[in-house]
Amino acid sequence: MSTPVPATTVAVLGTGIMGAAMARRMLRGGLTVRVWNRTRAKAEALVAAGAYCAESPADAVTGADVVLTMLSDGPRVLGAMREASEGLAPGTVWAQSATVGDAATAELAGFARQHALTFVDAPVLGTKQPAEAGELVVLAAGPESARVVLAPVFEAVGRRTTWVGDDGSTAAASRLKLVLNGWVAALTHATGEAIALAQGLGVDPRSFLDSVSGGPLDNGYLRAKAEAILNGDYTPSFSVANALKDGRLIVDAGERSGVQLDVARAGVARFERLERRGGGESDMAASYLASFEEGRAPAQDGH
Fold this sequence. Notes:
This protein is an alpha/beta fold and 303 residues long. The chain folds into 2 domains: 9-170, Rossmann fold (3-Layer(aba) Sandwich); 176-295, N-(1-d-carboxylethyl)-l-norvaline Dehydrogenase, domain 2, CATH 1.10.1040. The chain is built from 12 helices and 9 strands. It has a 6-stranded parallel β-sheet, sandwiched between helices. It has a 3-stranded mixed β-sheet with strand order 7-8-9. The radius of gyration is 20 Å and the shape is elongated.
């Protein structure tokens, strides 16, 4: 048997906020990167950084050592891979990094088996800023042989890789990602509600932040989302629409597992309110706005 060698060419299917940032990190790491996106302009934006902008998914994956998918949901990932099928070579390593849930991951693993691809379930933990800085945490499940091939890819985009199994079809990494995303959403909603309650009671929200500073109730994520809320800055790092999609995956996974997730379900309702009001492309910190009638937040000091 031949010894696996590290990847040199990576096809990135999906160059939205996360995919584009990851592609840039790979280019900086010396990898050859071929990119494709349904909205072509998003892929073309990476040409100046050294990427090849493919005409189609099949064009993108032709000659690639690794295919990395970072599209919004399972059906879009499967659709892109079906379009790519004529360019896929048997044995190509497929790192599926979109958050699609455990059920969709099993379906994608089935597609990989049909096309003799080496499937690695590889969602990432982090949003826009960590992606741009190469500070993502990669959660991965896949065969030992794929680890050498993927090493330069994962090293370029992340500060560490956590391998949780040797069979990507089990969706072990995707299941862990759902747990982590449930925690992220809960922190986001709790931050928004705490600041909203403070304002409703006539309490300076910064007094709340000062009170927990440096203690066990303090954390960096609370600080980041609180600052976004207090500055009224909802530039998307991770959008409400994506958070809503993930929240529904979490609730669905809980139901199938016999686990009642009341907090996650309530969080989905908050994101749904925001999306109905046209806030789907806002950062998920906008959960705060769901605390007010029609999203009309009171004036804040510091705005």
